[in-house]
Amino acid sequence: MNLKLLSFSLAFIFSASVFADGNNDKYSYKIDLTSIANDKIKVTLTPPKITTDEVIFRMPKMVPGTYKIYDFGRFVSEFRVGAPTNVNCPVTRLDDNSWKISNATQMTGIEYWVEDTWDTEISENKIFEPAGTEIDENRCFVLNNHGFFGYFEGMTQKGYEVDVTRPFNFYASTGLNFSSKQNTDHFTTISYDQLVDSPIMYTIPDTTFIQVGNCRVLVSVYNEPKEVLSSKVAEWIGAILDAQQNFLGGKLPVDKYAFLIYVPKEVSFGGGALEHNNSSMYFMPFYGEEYFQQIMKDVAAHEFFHIVTPLTLHSEEIHHFDFTNPEMSEHLWLYEGMTEYNAHLVQVRSGLINVEAYMENIIEKMNYAENFNDTLPFTTMSKGCLGVYEDQYINVYQKGALINMCLDILIIQNSNGSKNLREVIAQLSDQYGVRKPFKDEELFGEIEKLTYPEVRKFLDTYVAGPNRIPYKEMLSIVGLELSEGGVTEVIDPGFDIQYINYDEAQDKFYIMSDEYITEVGKTMKLQAGDMIDKINGKELRMANVMEVLQTFYQTSKTGDPVQYEILRPKGKKYKKVKLKGVLGKASLQIEKKLYLVENPTPDQVRFRKAWINQ
Questions:
Q1: Backbone phi, then psi, for 335, in 5-degree steps?
Q2: Are the CB atoms for 284 and 270 separated by under 8 Å?
Q3: Would you state the pLDDT for residue 23?
Q4: Is the pLDDT score of 269 beyond 60?
Q5: Same domain, yes or no, for 562 and 578?
């Protein structure tokens, strides 16, 4: 990977062109970032040619990649239509997102004000930050274009021109090509879809370019306290992008890409990113460099893989996206699940994480997936994720990834290690591609043609069917042993052994809090702060803690007598106390675990190597 810092004056322009000539059959928008009023921006539109007396202007109800209704028109106010003198173009607001304009052929322009979504008094239905907008005068502007610019019904495929007047020391970070004259930037897109697909971040620049194979990548960061610098982020994600390039066969499907990263001044529990064809927008709180570095790697890998699904390979519902009445595809397991799966698989295959870390990631997803309806067919959930199954959607990042893991393993097994899931997706991408969508109901059949009947059976049974995936059986194919976990009965010694703390000065363990003393312990009159000197006559010290406790648990049973010798704090001294009681019974939650099989078969070794390159 070649890492190179560029001067800020060039950092945002992938290629330059002269300003395009006006075209009255295009949308022509203007906004001025130097003229903000009450945290709002005025938007002016010279409309394309209108041929009907009545037309409906709309802001999007939803945008691709979010899987939730947001109603961006809620943030629009003071909507006005211009017309020649003595001509009236009446306007009727139909709903949050729609304005009906009469006598529309006489219309000369539209203007309205837009409030940002990050800093708003509109508290209900909060918009996911990477899909929202920010107006922070003299600091930063986040232009997710669907939040500022609309379209006329039935006219989303006309071209768009957008002129943005900016502060002289601000520059635009974006995946779009654009040109500049003084402090005005000129953007053009061939359609509303491309405009929505191209977020722009304006701020005093902190940018770095890196070259990854055939792709020139911009990393742009806004971070007022400067804990995060673009050069650092470029180093972190550069290794991931190199690994992804190799993972995808040595060539990336785009030749330019922009990471737009906003780090909020105040730490919040929100955060995430939204993918686009040539860029991704991040709202990423800073919790410390180590955490931020790993979360950026994970999220960047996920978002970048979206250039394959759904941005290259997708269904008709996504290809012909309806911003007013969106229809969902059945295949979120493909769009989000596969992307999440690949984001972690690429790291273990390239050695960026070890096998143990990858197995922990699998277990985390299994545990999290248990919070959702495991018998709800994933295709049904996908179709209904905007309504009845909205609360199940987040499982796409858990069970959706696990579905792809199992498909990958099945393909490897049935091909005897010569084929994998990403090769199948590459074949499908070649078969369909950006401009040719597949039909939802035909996808499983197309996958079967490229793979095996066993793969189709899995899709029908566990993706389109209500059946629980046999993870233990699947993971065994690649030499991993799954301990299912569950609840087991153990002795109750009077306190929760997980919550004893160590006093180094005294070389003794003590009970941290009353809340960790059980009913058995209360009967024995144990107290918070009690130091456990001896258990049944055996001293408990750091040097022998594992041996003493292991023997105690292995040789004791419910109903056995137990005796503790305690040092109890009394002022600055300790009082020796002997406590007697009877061991009770407790339930212990045992977590799932993944282990490498101790004596794997030659097939297991070969299939695991084909799977995770380990």
A1: -70, -50
A2: no
A3: 52
A4: no
A5: yes
pLDDT at 303 over 60: yes
411 with 525, same domain: the answer is no
- Residue 553 falls inside a structural domain: yes
Q: Which residues contact 106 (CB under 8 A, 6 or more apart)?
A: 83, 84, 87, 89
Report which of 285, 239, 248 is spatially closest to residue 265, judged by C-alpha positions.
Answer: 285
d(CA 477, CA 408): 11
Residue type, 504: E
Helix (H, G, I), strand (E, B) or coil at 117: coil
- What is the residue range of 338's domain? 316-481+598-612
Which comes out higher in pLDDT, residue 552 or 400? 400
Tokens encoding 155: 């006219």
Angle at 317 between CA 316 and CA 319, to 5 degrees: 60
Last residue within a domain, chosen from 203, 218, 241: 203
What average pLDDT does range 582-588 have in this prediction?
85
Q: What is the pLDDT of residues 170-183, one digit of tens each?
A: 999 999 999 999 99
468 with 503, same domain? no
Phi, psi of 398 (to 5 degrees): -110, -80
Tokens 């992307």 found at: 339
Tokens for 411, please give them.
């393909």
Domain count of the chain? 4
Q: b or e along 105-133 (b: 16 or more beta carbons within 10 Å of the residue's beta carbon)? A: ebbeebebbbbbbbebeeeeeebbbbbbb
304 in any annotated domain = no
The answer to whether residue 311 is domain-embedded is no
Backbone angles phi, psi at 316, to 5 degrees: -60, -35
* Structure-block tokens of residue 134: 């920010």
Cβ count within 10 A of residue 289: 12
Q: What is the pLDDT of residue 268?
A: 58
Mean pLDDT of 337-363: 94
Same-domain check for residues 463 and 605: yes
Q: Are 442 and 339 in the same domain? A: yes
Compute the average pLDDT of residues 452-473. 97
The whole-model pTM stands at 0.77
Mean pLDDT over 352-379 rounds to 94
pLDDT exceeds 50 at position 3 = no
Are 285 and 345 found together in one domain?
no
Q: Is the pLDDT of residue 77 over 70?
A: yes
List the helix and strand counts (H, then E) for the chain.
16, 31
- Alpha-carbon distance 139 to 513, whole Å? 47
Q: Is pLDDT above 50 for 576?
A: yes
Question: 408 by DSSP, 3-state: which?
Answer: helix
Average pLDDT score over residue span 197-214: 94
In this structure, the answer to whether residues 494 and 607 fall within a common structural domain is: no
- Would you say residue 308 lies in a domain? no
3-state DSSP of 530-549: CEEEEECCEECCCCCHHHHH
